[in-house]
Write the structure tokens for this entry.
Amino acid sequence: MRASFLDARLSAIAGLVPCCGSAADIGADHGYLGAHLLLTGRCDFVRFIDISRDSLEKARRLIAKLRLEAKAEFLVGDGAEPLGAPVGAAVMAGMGAEVICGIIDRGREKLQGASLVVAPNLDAPMVRRHLCEQGYRITGEALVREGCRFYPVIAAAPGGAHYDRLQLLAGPVLLKTRPDTLLAYADHRMRVIEKALPGARRGGEPWAEDLAEELELWREVRYGDGRPTAGIGE
């Protein structure tokens, strides 16, 4: 198994995992990501965690096929709860923002000192805000496009940082690097909001002005400088 076996989203996630002695793949499912981290030497040991015993069995079979059993542990449970030893990095991918935030909250003690790599399915701004509130700084980001969908990936490390609304919305690192996918996503969000906003205003929806503010922020990303001047936490 090599990097080519990973799809674009998993490749982006793997690329943001720091080299470390041990990592936790929370919500491991088929185990491809953890296997890749072991095969490439990015991590010496991976703890595969999943709430589903059946899903974890898929990862176990893959690791056995690759003869990597000595470098892996398989734990059934919710979030970081099954961890019995510290890890240098923890990955949470393919989950909703609220689920990821909940794992971070409940696993605060067991994840203490670990770098986090998270890939929320929806509402990346919520996750960025929560990381900041929990004492993390964002150290790396990617935005992957697969067909009509966009997948944000966020890496964070312990250390305080403050981000303004534009940075929370679009990503402080993405605003610095300005990849083509960020501009494409800005175009996408502007189209969605421009279609929804008139009806929201006519209907007197309380969230209409929040939507209008988001539209202006995406316009700043797309057509303005859009680069943060402070708060990156460096």
The first strand starts at residue 20 and ends at 26. Strands lie at 20-26, 43-50, 72-76, 89-95, 115-120, 136-146, 149-158. Residues 226-234 have pLDDT under 50 and may be disordered. The chain is about 45% helix and 25% strand.
